[in-house]
Amino acid sequence: MELTAASHSIPLSDGNKIPLMGLGTYGDPSTTPKGTTLEAVKLAIEVGYRHIDGALMYFNEHEVGQAIREKIADGTLKREDIFYCGKLWNTFHPPELVRAALQQTLKTLQLDYVDLYIIEMPIAFKPGETFFPKDENGKCLYHETDLCATWEALEACKEAGLTKSLGVSNFNKRQLELILKKPGLKHRPVSNQVECHPYFTQPKLLEYCQQNNILVVGYSPLGTSRDASWVNLACPPMLEDELLVSIAHKHKKTPAQVALRFNIQRGVAVIPKSFNPHHIKDNFQVFDFSLSDAEMKAILGLNKNIRFVELPMWSDHPEYPFNDSY
């Protein structure tokens, strides 16, 4: 199948389609100026992006929704042309809270449905008013829930037409199997959103997901921010890698474009986050070149099996997913 800027959607296992190139929208709410997300998403849609990845927990879904609605209103696209992925946050895992969480996302977006709704993390926090509940010592308050029960509540949301597809994020093989082998499973997860880039190629998890018709959506496909509170700074900046730089030079592209093209050619969707207009435009320019088999093999060889996004603050949670090898 020929992937082009105008047509790069691939089928999901439930018959729906997802564009392989998306825009991530996470930004630190304390440092991102009001209106930044709105302008970034509007520009992305004008550039050609048709896949927007967001979350209630990003605290900017109102701007994402406004951008989508404005571009529908001005005739740039129809609702069915845009693919929006929303996420169930850790404090909403109890089955009785799942639908209300999705409805809160829809109300914030001012849209009738999302295209994909995913469990953001396999770990549950204590439900309540705050997204990051802590005890008096500052320790995160966890909550014991059953991922299968949470999934059943998501299935009901799909059947009610609130989301077209269902998926997960940051799930390891064992956690995926919990869902796939659940008695009475009605709707399989179509996707697993995980960290994936040339320094962390996820070969075993990717193979397992592909065997089970689960699309891998790669977050932090360019490495990630250097925020020491949640990022492994021991991993060197990936886009300065000599091999990526040399391949980029050969194709008259940037190392970022090479890294994105690498994942797309492996059948991995990518959601690079940017609020920078230049980067938003640049990141989309990955459909006018391709990497040779030799180049793909060389980039695969860069794998260091090192995560940028370790989330060490939750590593003592019984469902912390990164203790397993994959």
TrEMBL record:
The record marks K87 as: Lowers pKa of active site Tyr. GO terms for biological process: bile acid biosynthetic process. PANTHER family: ALDO/KETO REDUCTASE. One of its GO terms (molecular function) is Delta4-3-oxosteroid 5beta-reductase activity. This is NADP-dependent oxidoreductase domain-containing protein. It comes from Esox lucius. Belongs to the aldo/keto reductase family. The active site is at Y58 (proton donor). InterPro entries: AKR, AKR1D1, Aldo/ket_reductase_CS, NAD(P)_OxRdtase_dom_sf, NADP_OxRdtase_dom.
